[in-house]
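step: validate -> pass
step: tokenize input -> pass
step: predict -> running
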Amino acid sequence: MKKAQPVVAKQDAARSDETAIGRGRNGDGVPLYQRVRDSLRKDLARGVWKPGNMLPTELELGERFGVSPGTIKQAVLELVRDGLITRRPGKGTFVTRIDTPRGFARFFGFEGAGGAALNPKVSVLDLQITTDAPAEAKKALGLGARGKVLFIRRLLKHNDTPVCIYDSYLPYRLMAGLEHEKLDVDRIYFAIEKKFDIHVVSVEEMLTASIVGGREAKLLEVPVGSPIIHIERVAFSHNNTVVEWRETIGRSDHFIYKLKSP
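step: predict -> pass
step: emit ->
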């Protein structure tokens, strides 16, 4: 197997910060490792390294910032705990993809009956280019009344049992042509990464409990008025560009919440 090579970051944009970091702890009393962590966090936000990219080694980062390997290790561990990067023993440190277990789903999601891991099958139920979208979607995407979105409705099933409905709204100006991709095979984020080189690097989600209406109840195969989990998501690419507003409607009997303290 060919060994992954680290992606070399461009130095010029961050050189002044790195020089300052290498001078040691300054008058503001901020520990070196926190300053290194914050600088690396900025690089990740700018897209210096994209999801799935391998970071330089701790030794290389130490040379770049002019600090000890121990300081780099502390900074890296903080970013690992934040879910931004993942360490793979014997391979290196990689930028986390948003759909991995180290992404948002480590906190909550859906599962099969009795806590079984999902063996999901995703079907595209509706796909259209439209100007019709919820006000929240238009606002998040920065679109006016006539702004076009690509609307995609998908149904996720586990062993032929409906689990949740995904309604995604994507800015068509950035996603023109995505409607031709096989979105019942590829995940949306993988598809836009492959086709447009747009990477989802963070999400914001708001979770509420609600009851299901008639059309969605039929799709989820539950009685009208059954309790559901409702999740609104805003997905961001680099430079805080919003690339998706999503509404998830899920069966409460398949929902889990889990939290592991440090």
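step: describe -> Confidence is low (pLDDT under 50) at residues 8-20, 100-108.
step: cleanup -> pass
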